[in-house]
# Entry
Amino acid sequence: MSPTYVVNAPRVIHETLDGEVVAIDLGSGAYFSMRDSAAVAWDAIVAGLDTAGVIDHVTATHAPTDADIAAEIEAFVADLLARELIVAGSPETGAAPDHGTGLPYETPALETFTDMADVILLDPVHDVDAAAGWPHQPAGPTDEE
# Structure
């Protein structure tokens, strides 16, 4: 059996919008875009497929190609691991979303953006104390005193 991975939560959040996956690393402030075969592979990882299952899913979703899909998916997974967007783990297993078949294949790419990193890192929401919540009033005198 090949390795399985999970999203590195809560450090990484992600959403799929119109077939594009956007992932934000709250630790570094970088955000990432994954489209086409990269989005299909990400969805398969999130669904709990092992690496071999991700390769099979991407292969089944796309039109036949001369590309070495297995090597390209393994490189894509290695990139996700290196950027700590995913970590080794045992996800709840499920089925990858149906993306249809016959899609044109392109080498999976992880586009990285750091232009908003300062703003993302300033966001106080990811520094919330679970017990106190946010926002909360600072301690101080009240109007009744």
Observations:
- The two ends are 67 Å apart (CA to CA).
